[in-house]
Amino acid sequence: MRILIVDDDRVTRMVIERSLQRYGYETLTVDNINAALELVLKGVVQFVITDWLMPGGNGTMLCEQIRNANLPSYIYIIIVTALEDSQSVVEGMDAGADDFIRKPIQFDELHARIRAGERILQLEQELQENNLRLSETTNQLLAANETINHDLKMAATMQRSLLPNTSAQIQGIAIDWLFHPSTHLSGDIFNFFPLDKHHCGFYIIDVAGHGIASAMQSFTLSRLLSPDTQGGNYLKYRSLEAPYQKIIQSAPAVIAALNHQFQTDETNILYFTMVYGVIDTQAKTIELCQAGHPSSLYLHHNDAAEFIDEGGLAVGIIDGIDYHSVLLHYQPGDRLFLYSDGITECESADGEMFGSERLRRSVEKTRGLSIAETIQSLDLDIRTWRGSVGFDDDISLLVLAT
Predict the structure, then answer these.
(1) Do 123 and 180 belong to one domain?
(2) Longest CA–CA separation in the chain, Å
(3) How many other C-beta atoms lie within 10 A of the C-beta of residue 101?
(4) From residue 87, how far is each of 60, 79, 83 by CA, in Å?
């Protein structure tokens, strides 16, 4: 370690210098505080032994100038003094001195005080190195987090692209929807699509949990529940007799097939609730099968809204169970509301849930509104109830209007 000796007396400088060199230290010597400050500011030394009384400025002035310089590394300062009063010690410490040694100097004592200062400087260096490593790690984490957020936003965009077009209409059935993920990605997914010239299929799914795992499961389910015109799938099967037509699966058969494939185990606990339905636009019927999902809400064009309560267990809980459907006969102006429990369990500022009955009333008051206005009204009711930005659970709502 290099030590700067500041003393206006040449003999004293030489004695201290030779003593420190015997201990293995490298030394520099100057006879005034200006020269000393210049070397300190250049970063040449990190340890200073200075006399208290010198022409042109004393040791406390040098201490103050060093401390006010805001140097990148700490400078350890020992003041050598012949003063005996305690006030001088207080004055020196206030100026920024780290230690004192009194004249005549006992060099064993000086060496011990230097070793103590070295330990402090070593700790300071280790702290700087740790802070540097921490800063580098923080920057790496920030960069990784930025990449993750970018990827999540891209995935969220892809997820939204799987949803049906708003204000779409297929075979005389109009739809619109509401979708507010609690994070970038959602375990909720829904869709509406033609099955043939006179049938439409629709579903809403809520995968247990939140985040990437739930979203990946919903991605998989949306792919499996897409109509395939090239062959059989979950929604259709090919008849075994000529002309080998593709026959639409019943709603319970679709859910039963999913339940068989997606059984939970030690490695997969992502069960899900869902509603799947098939609309026959010739017969004016809706076949509806519910599996652990909140009860669909049916708004008659000239009657009160009612919940469709019939349903079975969530998908993936028990294999081989039978699912059943209900058959609704619709008339022009009727509407069917499918929603996730993120709506009914949405909490207000004081912790009260939105609830099914409040949802029913919100739906009732949309009678006479267009389907787009209906979505806006329900969205406003839910947001007003929540009273804050963001939701604890995914919010999804699919409305079908006949």
Answers:
(1) no
(2) 117
(3) 17
(4) 13, 14, 10
Backbone CA torsion sign across 27, 33, 34, 39: positive
Q: Do 107 and 178 share a domain, yes or no? A: no
| Within a domain: 91 | yes
pLDDT exceeds 90 at position 184: no
The pLDDT of residue 229 is above 50: no
How far apart, in whole angstroms, are the C-alpha atoms of residue 262 and residue 315?
Answer: 7
How many domains, the chain? 2
Q: How far is CA 167 from CA 189, 273, 378, in A?
A: 17, 25, 15
Q: What is the DSSP letter of 55?
A: T
Tell me, what CATH number does 388's domain have?
3.60.40.10
Rounded to the nearest 5 percent, the helix, strand and coil shares of the chain are 35, 25, 35
pLDDT at 233: 73
Residues in the chain: 402
Tell me the one-letter amino acid at 130. Answer: N
pLDDT tens digit string along 4-40? 999 999 999 999 999 999 999 999 999 999 999 999 9
Residues 62 and 33 sit within 8 Å (Cβ to Cβ): yes
Q: Are 337 and 399 in contact (CB under 8 A)?
A: yes
Q: Are residues 258 and 391 in the same domain?
A: yes
In this structure, are 178 and 252 located in the same domain? yes
Split at pLDDT 50, 70, 90, the class of 165 is confident
Q: Examine the pLDDT at 193 and tell me if it is beyond 90.
A: yes
* Domain ranges, residue 220: 162-401
- Nearest C-alpha neighbor of 50 from the set 116, 95, 86: 95
Q: Is the pLDDT confidence value at 231 over 50?
A: no
Cis check: omega of the bond before 104, within 30 degrees of 0: yes
Q: Is residue 84 part of a domain?
A: yes
Output the domain CATH number for residue 37: 3.40.50.2300
Q: Is the pLDDT of residue 298 over 90?
A: yes
96 token code pair = 């920024």
Domain stop point among 105, 129, 153: 129
Q: pLDDT above 90 covers what percent of the chain?
A: 65
Mean pLDDT of 67-89: 86
Same domain, 118 and 190: no
Inform me whether the pLDDT recorded for 352 exceeds 60.
yes
